[in-house]
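Run log // design_07
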């Protein structure tokens, strides 16, 4: 029995697993290299210095691989060997490796010094870029202007505003039914004889210009303690007392 002949278009078709997916970015190329040559390339951790002339080795190994082009390989190698972790790994005495991870010639002092200089310059450029971005962000979104803080308004003391009890008493109108008692004329005052100053006796005591009635509470030699009509207790001398 004769088998049906396949069409030419069907014969050229391949399954998705057989097709080579073209790397689109440098990141994709580096990921592909790390997959194909894990003993040589790495995406994380400590990097290993590469053999000088490793581009030719890569081009030969991948000459039939449509995933990456030579241009992409050059660009990927340039990015990989200028990374901070690669430059930090490029130290004097460390051996370079080939695609299979086999150690080769060691790095000399001049190569290590060159790598250190490139690392320092790269970090300085990165710091300048960060600084420029921060300045640009501040320029686009300036902080609100800081104005002088207004002086705190002192809360008035309500108690100070309120009149005192004495003020209220003074402002209270005098009732006509209780006329103010006229002060005793100074000419009518007669000093109290020493023997007449006894506890409980009524006397006049001169405080200021007007004498006021008081009651003797205590007598101690020439010192006398009296109580005014308002209830205030005053200590004075006998010669300041007068007959009531």
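design_07 sequence
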């Amino acid at each position: 029995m004769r088998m049906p002949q396949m069409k030419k278009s069907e014969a050229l078709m391949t399954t998705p697993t057989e097709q080579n997916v073209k790397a689109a970015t440098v990141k994709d190329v580096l990921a592909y290299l790390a997959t194909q040559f894990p003993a040589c390339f790495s995406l994380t951790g400590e990097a290993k210095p590469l053999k000088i002339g490793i581009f030719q080795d890569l081009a030969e190994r991948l000459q039939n691989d449509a995933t990456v082009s030579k241009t992409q390989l050059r660009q990927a190698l340039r990015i990989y060997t200028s990374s901070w972790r690669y430059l930090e790994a490029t130290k004097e005495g460390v051996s370079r490796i080939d695609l299979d991870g086999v150690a080769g010639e060691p790095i000399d002092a001049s190569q290590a010094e060159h790598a250190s200089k490139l690392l320092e310059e790269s970090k300085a450029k990165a710091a300048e870029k960060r600084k420029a971005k921060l300045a640009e962000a501040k320029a686009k979104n300036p902080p609100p202007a800081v104005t002088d803080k207004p002086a705190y308004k002192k809360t008035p003391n309500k108690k100070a505003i309120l009149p005192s009890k004495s003020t209220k008493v003074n402002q209270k109108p005098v009732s006509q039914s209780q006329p103010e008692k006229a002060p005793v004329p100074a000419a009518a005052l007669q000093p109290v004889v020493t023997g007449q100053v006894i506890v409980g006796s009524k006397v006049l005591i001169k405080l200021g210009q007007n004498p006021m009635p008081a009651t003797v509470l205590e007598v101690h030699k020439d010192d006398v303690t009296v109580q005014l009509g308002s209830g205030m207790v005053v200590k004075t001398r006998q010669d300041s007392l007068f007959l009531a």
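The radius of gyration is 56 Å.
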